[in-house]
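Escalated from tier 1: pyridoxal-5'-phosphate holo job.
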Amino acid sequence: MNNNAQLSSGVQNYVNRGQEIVKRREDDFRRMKRCRFDTIAVHGMYTMREALEENQGSIIEPAYIATSQGYRDSDEMEAGLAYLIPTWCYARIANPTTYYLEWVLALLEGYGSDMETSAVVTSSGMAAITSAVEPFLVKLSEAADEPINFVSSACIYGGAFQQFSIRQKEKGRLVRWVQNPSNLQTWEALIDDNSRFLYAELPSNPNIAFCDIKALAELAHRHGIPLIVDSTVATPALLRPLTLGADIVVQSLSKTITAGGLGIGGAIISRKNLVSEKVIQAKEMTDDFASWVKFLPYRDNGPSMNPLHALMVLNDLRTLRSKVDTMSKNAMQIAQWLAEHPGVEQVHYLGLESDPMHKLAKRDMVLADSELDSGKPVNRYSHLMSFRVKGGGQAARRVMDGFEMIYRATDLGRIKSVATIPAISTHQQQGEEARIMADIPANLIRLNIGAEHPDDIIADLERGFSRLG
Ligand SMILES: Cc1ncc(COP(=O)(O)O)c(C=O)c1O
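Tier 2 regenerated the structure:
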């Protein structure tokens, strides 16, 4: 915002009108914050007033697919392009349809707390991850060899692993890997004065690592740096890292949030006033990170989301809680079945009491509003698991090749069950050495459990295991 400029009376008129819109939006936000999770997911910030007065009564958010907004006159244009009024100007910067998606995500990630949150949506999950980390990795001095590092769990999606180890290295930034993210001492030992943030993914893809977000956030904040969490697998229906102390959440909207599988996108959702003592590019960056990213680096770098995709995501998001509940219940049953199977060496699923992270996951992973459904909070441990097949990589391939319903695809979060062998797909590029560090062996099958009946999923798994002879 250009606060210092002397405004003409024409521009000032638009600013005054804009303030009324801002006030109405703030009131709508506060009103929605008092609603239950499902109500927020269904309606978000699209109000009946907006439908009736501004959108011909359309009960679903309209798809605004025009590239740009026209202005009444040059005063409104000046006010809009200086960000002095709510405006969308040009679809790379903002768009009315993506706006609705951003605010529903901000509300859901802050659900159950008084915290103020904001969001920006991107063209993919990787665009969200890159847009979230880049602002913290800028040089703070003129020195050509200024050392810049960040500390990340090694148990992360293969694309993020490549982004951190290859793309960031190309720019002279060093990632320091934490092999076992539940070990806080390892994180602490790797932080120094040049560390810019901590990064974790949980539950992680594919080996379902988990850690104590609260403790990790406290550690980050003791060092004056933010904690960034990829919460794609859990979604806000099960876990809300911001409410546990994290500063920024990244989501791949291409996954569980759009379980129907018809959208690609990502999101950055942040708390107001995040902790970043070393890097403050502008006061707005720490005051309201997601909005600052949207109006500055995002505008200049261009990772924006297609509004039609925003509508696809919004549509799926409305039933997020019930889908996550069904898929997680099914997953629990399948994990128990796999744990008893003679062809399985080990199952990684947070719902199993034998999982080393079960106790912590039980504390943090609770289905939103489940206490209203059944009188007490209900734990759900997501749709994602992985298991190691006895007999090595070739045996795992034989099992997976026997599936007739469970798709072989590099995908997760789907309403349809999907399996992959990460060592030959999602985590192939990072190479053998990095897979050993991240504990991704060749016999590991990652299994995303969908909403089919569990009997049919088990029958298909049986078909796979029958190939072992
Ligand atoms: C946990 C996680 N985060 C981020 C991503 C990247 O998302 P996208 O494919 O939308 O770029 C993925 C993709 O598989 C993922 O599994």
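The chain has 19 helices and twelve strands.
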